[in-house]
Amino acid sequence: MAFELPKLAYEYDALEPFIDARTMEVHHSKHHQGYTDKFNAILEKYPEVASMQLEDIFKKLNDLDVEEADRQGIRNNGGGYINHKIFWESMGPTKNVDEKLQNEIVETFGSLDAFKEEFSKAAGSQFGSGWAWLVRDENNKLKVYSLANQDSPYSLGHTPIFNLDVWEHAYYLKYQNRRPEYIENWWNVLKLV
Ligand code: MN3
Question: Is the CB of residue 88 less than 8 Å from the CB of residue 8?
Fold first, then answer.
């Protein structure tokens, strides 16, 4: 069983003007498709891994019975597969605020603005390619951080809630080197908060 490129719940131009249609199209149909294909190609060698729940593959990444080069391949390409899936699902053209989550965010970070500032800082200060994350840690506490490349919070024992892609391919066409502007505009298309 192969993992499929997830269909988006909205059109490529639905997040305009904050994320442009061309970036969405290339990001989804080329980048995400590429991760999907490479992930599946590795899994062809490991039917037991291919039949696992997607999240479990990353929770158990270090214990998978695979060659080391393939473990790294799963980390990178499988990470690219699951991280983008979370990314598309957390965005949308209309807000669908999760009140319970929002209350918990205010409780944990002091205010919504303080949370946004901390998250934006994590996204802005990630050196090179990576993602900013809101997760639940092993004690069910909300936490914000960034991880390099396609690393998954599941591999740290954490559960992702939403993420922000700060690889250049996520924003370069529209924003070039202006990552802070991309981050600021992204809050408009994050559904949950
Ligand atoms: Mn990406």
Answer: yes
